[in-house]
Amino acid sequence: MPLTALWNQAYTFLRHRGASHHDAQDWTQDVFTSLASKGLLTEDGRIAVENSSLHPSYVLTMARTQMIDHHRAANALKRKRPNSKTGDERLDSAEALSPAEHLVRNEAQQSWDRQLDRLGNEIKQPEKKALFLHVRPWLIPGERSENLTKLARESKLSVTMTKVQIHRWRKCLIDRFRKAYDYQTAA
Predict the structure, then answer these.
(1) For residue 89, what are the CA distances in angstroms to 78, 143, 145?
(2) I need a surface site. Which of 66, 148, 153, 186 has the fewest CB within 10 A?
(3) Are 91 and 38 in contact (CB under 8 A)?
(4) CA atoms in the 13 A half-sphere facing the CB of 127
(5) How many angstroms separate the CA atoms of 64 and 3, rounded?
(6) Mean pLDDT, residues 39-49 taken together
(7) How many of the other CB atoms lie within 10 Å of CB of 132?
(8) Residue 77 pairs with which residues in a beta bridge?
(9) Taking the complete model, does pTM exceed 0.70, yes or no?
(10) Is the predicted pLDDT of residue 11 greater than 60, yes or no?
């Protein structure tokens, strides 16, 4: 299949899925740039001889992935925006929130922090308390303070055991958070 036919097919595919003219052009260009970087196109823009059977569905899948990646990036949450009061880093949406949404988000973050503090205070064993203090940043939504392997090494546990402990504490926190939220909304 000629390169121009593949180009037109990818462009049309994106346009039929709701992309604007300019977005479809950009994403199609990104697809073919990616194909060139993978060595599937020659320097003069032709399909490489050994890849002459470059299937159109592969190109369309790449175009679809470009479109999905763009939408995910556009709808993504900004990560690690410092909280002006506490200096903590929290999630904040890419779009401006209404005052009511800010209030709900702040209340949820405060409730999560309270549950996290309560869980930390309930741990009596010194070894588990030390582990909790190491793992605490991993229990805050949207934060990953350090490498999990490094965390496991410092905790003197295997990576798997560290993951299991993080999972257990997250599950416990989520259950507590839901109960607290249900209690607050019922009151």
Answers:
(1) 11, 7, 10
(2) 186
(3) no
(4) 4
(5) 18
(6) 68
(7) 20
(8) 93
(9) no
(10) yes
